Amino acid sequence: MLRRVLAVDGQSMFYAQQKLGWFFDPRRLMELARQEGEVELGSAFWYSGLKEPNDQRPFRDALTSLGYTVRTRPLRDLGGEGESRHYARANLDVEVAIDLLTVAHRCEEVWLLSGSKDLDRLVEVLRAKGLTIIVFSTEGMVARELRNAADRFVDLASLLPQLAKADSPTPGLLRRPSISPSHV
């Protein structure tokens, strides 16, 4: 039986899904992770930055009820003064690394939904421990270093039929052929 772990970088995935024009359903993601033959989903983590402590509370509660371990950190405002561009970052890469290194001894495969270049070294270390790492993101939203460090890359655009929320708009011209879970 293949033991798999799922790690979702919520902020990275939010922007990737905005680019795609549709949002994935966390329940369907969990189902897809369990769907392939004899798979045991040992752990599922979701990482999210928060503006305020109660931010996204219903969504986080729903994730927890689905079986995700939800990790949060406050967003920090980074940027310049006046007309300069401002952006916020929670920087949950340390939490991702700690969680995945903690469960590495009891899994063979990690599905990492992120595009962060900061995770490339973690992926190299996990692979050196014998784990297979599959990175899920979308073209233009994944660092080349992360993609190259992984065993495989899966473009989320190819998983629209399997993952899209029922109420997500389906971009007709952007729809790409799906891949079966056995090819993931």
Could you outline the blueprint of secondary structure elements for this entry?
Elements: E1 2-9, H1 10-20, H2 26-35, E2 39-50, H3 57-66, E3 69-74, E4 76-79, E5 86-89, H4 93-103, E6 109-113, H5 120-128, E7 132-137, H6 144-149, E8 152-155, H7 160-163
The SSE string, one letter per element, is EHHEHEEEHEHEHEH
Which class of secondary structure composition applies to the elements? alpha/beta
- CATH first level: which class? Alpha Beta
- Largest sheet descriptor: 6 strands, parallel
What would CATH call the architecture?
Answer: 3-Layer(aba) Sandwich
Radius of gyration: 16 Å
Assess the beta-strand content as a share of residues: 25-35%
**How many DSSP H or I helices?**
7
Provide the residue-averaged pLDDT: 87
Note poorly predicted spans. Answer: 170-184
> How many individual β-strands?
8
| Major β-sheet strand ordering | 3-2-1-6-7-8
Task: Provide the CATH topology.
Answer: Rossmann fold
Helix content: 25-40%
Oligomer: single chain
Give the end-to-end Cα distance, rounded to a whole number of Å. 17 Å
Q: Specify the overall morphology.
A: globular
CATH homology superfamily name: 5'-nuclease
Question: Please, how many domains?
Answer: 1
Q: How is this structure best described in words?
A:
Strand 2, helix 3 (57-66) and strand 3 (69-74) form a beta-alpha-beta unit. It is built from seven helices and eight strands. The protein has a single domain (2-77, 88-110, 125-178), classed as 5'-nuclease (Rossmann fold, 3-Layer(aba) Sandwich). It is an alpha/beta fold. It has a six-stranded parallel beta sheet with strand order 3-2-1-6-7-8, sandwiched between helices. The chain has a two-stranded antiparallel sheet with strand order 4-5. The protein has helices spanning 10-20, 26-35, 57-66, 93-103, 120-128, 144-149, 160-163; strands at residues 2-9, 39-50, 69-74, 76-79, 86-89, 109-113, 132-137, 152-155.
